[in-house]
Every structure is written in C-alpha cells, then in structure tokens.
Write a structure and sequence with these properties.
By secondary structure, the chain is of the alpha/beta class. 55% of the residues lie in helices and 9% in strands. The chain is built from 22 helices and 12 strands. The structure holds arginine.
C-alpha cells in the first residue's frame, strides 16, 4: 500500500469533488500543478472535457466550478473557473494541520513510503575502487551518488543490496606479486602502505619497459595466482587487506557501508563456464590465436572475453557479475554507478548478456553514469601530483577549510560551539560540503570544484542548509520547549500568511521529490528540495517573528513550523548522506 501524504490526499479530494459534479468523467481527470505565476494549488485543464461535452470552454469551466461542493473537512478551500482551467485552492488552515500532522507523525521517517518498493530487490553497485591504488576524485562521485541512491531507495521500501565491486583481480596483480618476489616491500609499507604499493607497481612498470622478460614474470605470477598457488594467494590477500583498511577509513568518514564487497576475484570460479556458454551460444568466437572475442556486427565495437594466453579480462568478470546478481537476487534493477567513460563497456556487457539468451537480465541492468570532476581555477588541485587527485586529500582539505571557517566565527563570537564540538563539526561541515557539491549539480555534466563556493554560508551549499537547520534547533532551544511541542499541542490553523503557507507547501513536497528521485535515480532532486525548503524558511523568518510573535498561541504555532522545518532539513540531508549538527 502506498502512503497518502497531504498532497496525495488533496489531489484525491480534488478528483472526487470534480467527479461528483457529474460533468467530468472520472477517467478524464488529469490534475496539474499550475504554472508558478498562477495563484492556485492544483488546476484541472478544461479543454478536453469541454470538447467532449460539446460546450464552450469558458462556460464549461464556470459550470464545473459552480457545481462543486466541498465537504466541511476538505483540504480544499475554493474552486474557481479560470482561463482554460478550473483552479483549485487548498484551505490554508486545514492544509497546515495536515502537513504538520504528516511530519510529526513520522519525524525521521517523514517523506518515506515503504509501499513503493515493497517486495522488490535492487542491487546498487557503487564506489568499486581498485586494490593497490588510492581512491581518486572519480571514485568520489560514484561513492557519493551511489550512497545517496541507496538511502533514497531504502526510504522507498526497496530491499537494496549494495555491492562494492573492488578491482582486485587482473594481470596487474601479477606485476605486484612479481615485484614483491624481486624486491620485497619497500620501507614505506609501514607508514603509507597503499602509497608503497602504488610506487612498487610504478617501479616494476618502468623496469619492464627496459626488460620485457619481466612481463613474462608478471604473467607467470598471475597464472600462479589464478591456479591457486598458496604463496601467490597469501601475498595477494595481504594486498587486498592493506588497501581495504585504507578504503574503510574513508568510508567511515563518509558514513558508508556495503552489504557485499564482492571484488572481481569473487567471479573467478564462474568465468570458465561463462566463456564456454558464450562460445556455445555463438555469441563469442575463438580466434586463430586462441583468444575469444565477442562481436556485434555494426551495432557495437567488438571486445575480448579471453586473451590468447587464457587470461580473462575486466569484461569477462562483468558478464559473470551481471548473471550472478540475477541468479542470486533476481533484482528488479541491477544498477551500476560508474563514470561515463565506461558507457561503451556496459553497453557491451549488457548486449552480451542479451545475446546469450537473457534479455530480461539485460533490460533490468542500468548504468548510471556521471561526468568528470573539473577544477575551476582551483589552484593547488590538479598540480600537486600530476593529474591524480586523491579522495582523502580532498576530504582533508575540506575539513581544514571548515575548521578555519569555524575558527573565524569563534573569533567573532558568532558560534555556539564549544571547543570540543569544533572538531567534529568541522568534519561534518567539510565532508557535507564535498558530498553536496557533488549531488546538487546532477550527474550528467561534470562537476566543478570551487573551494570558496562549496564552503560558503550563502547559496546552494550544504553549509547553508546545515546552518538553517542549526538555526531552527537554536530557536527551539531558546523557546525552552521540553518536551518540544507536537502538532497536536499548537494551533496549526494560525499559519496562514503567504510565507508560512509557502514553507508548508515545500514541506509537503518531500514525499513527491523522494518518489521522483527514486524513479529517476536522481539524488539531485532531493538536494533541490532541501535547498528550497531552507530558502522558503529564510523568507518566512525574515518576515515574521517567532519567539516574539504577537500572541502566545501564534508563537507556539510558529515554533511548531520551525520544528517541522528542522525535521525536514534533517531528513533531506540524511537522504543525501549528510549529517546535520544541532548547533553551529
Ligand atoms: N574498478 C573500476 C574503476 O575503478 C570500476 C568498476 C566499475 N564496476 C564494474 N562492475 N565494472 O575504474
């Protein structure tokens, strides 16, 4: 059962009263949200109905509006004919109460709707960095988008399986094992182990340029690893462990966990039969040199499923992964959050699966892609180490800048934070800024990194939203409500000014933004909703006193609104994977 929030109920009531006039067929009822310049909450376009009634549209709109009768407890307040539409207005008092009842009956769960995804499983694969490498900013995007998507889909009642598809297999591990056999680990292994691995790999690569025999050595080591050689496996396991420890620290900072971390190696036992099946079904063919290739005619470029020396590839493992997830979970969608440079790769993988006789699996597999991270005159960013920018450095830099900002506010006496709270708050603000900067810009285009902008108190930033949330909490603390008032404890019907109603309408839209974000796999819609709530709140707060409201009843009602806004902002941020501090 899908949940009915205030706007759902208002819509249903509007359909009912229009149908009850007997002038409009219930199945011809489409209600739209009017354009921003039209002062109405819902609109019914009249032309089609007028046409089938053989009536003049303006007359017909008037007849329909006149024929409407509203029940006493309706969320609707007025129905009137307008140009081409019947316009419908909510009843401000009852609408206010309905929205705040919705918020306060659910609190942290406000906006959720377990009925949407009930009994459907989704696999969401994201992050998927490579072992013996550092995570770079490209992994930041998949990690942040994937995690928010997970939160959104869980809030919609789906059973979500998150998987981290680690790059932990492939010939590069042959190089690392060979390098280890030749030279042992460098001393840096004690202090910065992943950096040490990156360096020994680079050293091996350079040495192999000069001495091609090293390439054979690397191949031999990968063969040993593939065939289960104990020494090779032990060293490889060590590499995985070392790197995962570093990744886990980053995931902890971002507050991210995975249900499974099946690296590419997990699929190793399935590869032989996948290659076999592809050949048997005529999807792949054995070349003269023994390599196995998949061709698609004109449709897509061909690729290799197996090298001539029998080694499998990244592609092979992805074909196996796609089939495995289907057999294991039968997901309604198998989602890959991966950068757009891999678009062709996923087209090839899904098309292979389709041609192997599994069109349903291919149809349910989705590549959510995103553009690259670019630097807008961001001075130190791209230069520091060639073009690689590491994720931890970005997070550290953001936290350092947040710390400085807080320090400045302290010096000006403009913060409520204690010394002890400063550090945790800097972490929350810095990391929140990075996550938000990534999510609000939407995935298609690349995102821009502008340090000053993304850590600004003004504009579309996490900090602006977090600050608005902290302000709501601060107002409630000053009001000294304990326990805090609930919707039942105050008279929501007093909240009828345009600014109050605008806040309420924005609050009411969260469930709808959430459903749309889930349908389109688009966390940016939640960022947009949250930001707009903060803005509506600012407009309200600018116009209307809360603590000094004209009457105690009005003060109490506005405090209820403030509490609801704080809750809404917290819920929006939580869906994005961002924390909201109590005070700032
Ligand atoms: N490990 C790859 C990289 O860092 C991304 C893996 C994406 N997922 C997949 N199923 N191929 O570029």
């Amino acid at each position: 059962m899908k949940r009915k929030y205030a706007l759902d109920r208002a819509r249903a009531q509007a359909s009912d009263v229009l149908a009850a006039t007997g002038l409009v067929a219930a199945d011809a009822m489409t209600l739209v949200e009017p354009k921003p310049n039209i002062p109405a909450d819902l609109a019914f376009p009249i032309f089609a109905a007028a046409k089938s009634a053989g009536a003049n549209p303006a007359d017909f709109a008037r007849r329909v509006a006149d024929a409407v009768t509203l029940p006493a407890d309706s969320l609707l307040g007025a129905v009137e004919a307008a140009d081409g539409f019947v316009n419908i207005h909510f009843a401000p008092e009852r609408f206010a109460r309905a929205v705040l009842d919705d918020v306060f009956s659910a609190d942290d769960a406000y906006g959720r709707d377990a009925g949407i995804g009930a009994e459907q499983t989704l696999v969401v694969e994201f992050s998927s960095p490579n072992i013996a490498r550092k995570m770079h900013v490209g992994h930041l995007r998949t990690t942040v988008i994937g995690n928010s998507l997970r939160n959104i889909l869980v809030a919609l009642g789906y059973r979500v399986i998150t998987d981290n598809h680690l790059g932990d297999w492939g010939t590069q591990f042959g190089s690392l094992l060979a390098a280890h056999a030749l030279w042992g680990w460098p001393p840096q292994m004690e202090t910065d182990p992943v950096e040490a691995l990156v360096q020994i790999y680079a050293r091996f690569h350079a040495a192999a340029e000069a001495d091609p025999a090293l390439r054979d050595l690397a191949r031999q080591w990968f063969k040993r690893l593939e065939s289960g050689d104990e020494a090779a496996r032990a060293t490889w396991k060590q590499l995985v462990k070392i790197t995962l420890e570093e990744f886990d620290r980053t995931y902890q900072r971002l507050n991210i966990t995975f249900d499974t971390t099946h690296g590419e190696s997990f699929y190793e036992p399935m590869l032989e039969s996948v290659v076999r099946e592809a050949i048997d079904k005529g999807v792949a063919r054995v070349e003269a040199d023994g390599a196995v290739s998949v061709g698609f005619g004109e449709a897509l470029p061909s690729y290799l499923l197996q090298k001539s020396d029998g080694a499998t590839l990244y592609q092979t493992r992805d074909v196996a992964t796609c089939l495995y997830r289907w057999h294991e979970y039968a997901p309604a969608r198998n989602i890959y959050v991966v950068g757009q440079e891999q678009t062709l790769h996923f087209q090839q993988v899904f098309e292979t699966v389709r041609r192997m006789g599994y069109p349903e699996i291919a149809d349910r597999s989705v590549h959510i892609s995103f553009g690259a991270v670019t630097d807008v005159g961001g001075q130190r960013f791209s230069m520091r180490r060639g073009t690689a920018i590491f994720l931890d450095e970005v997070l550290d830099e953001a936290v350092a800048r947040a710390r400085q900002t807080i320090g400045e506010k302290m010096a000006e006496g403009k913060t409520e934070l204690s010394e002890a709270e400063q550090e945790t708050t800097a972490e929350i603000i810095g990391i929140g800024a990075i996550i938000y900067n990534d999510l609000y810009q939407g995935p298609e285009r690349g995102i821009r990194f502008d340090w000053d902008k993304l850590l600004s108190f003004e504009g579309n930033t996490a900090l602006y939203i977090q600050y608005t949330h902290a302000r709501c909490r601060s107002i409630l603390r000053k009001a000294d409500l304990s326990p805090l008032g609930r919707a039942g404890d105050f008279n929501a019907a007093l909240l009828t000014t345009p600014e109050e109603q605008a806040v309420l309408k924005q609050l009411a839209r969260l469930p709808h933004a959430l459903r749309e974000a889930g349908e389109k796999f688009l966390p940016a819609l939640i960022a947009e909703w949250t930001y707009n709530l903060a803005r509506e709140f600012a407009r309200f707060y600018h116009e209307h006193p809360v603590l000094d409201a004209a009457t105690p009843e009005l003060r109490q009602a506005r405090l209820g609104l403030v509490q609801a806004v704080g809750q809404g902002l917290r819920n929006g941020l939580a869906l994005l994977g961002i924390r909201a501090p109590e005070r700032m």
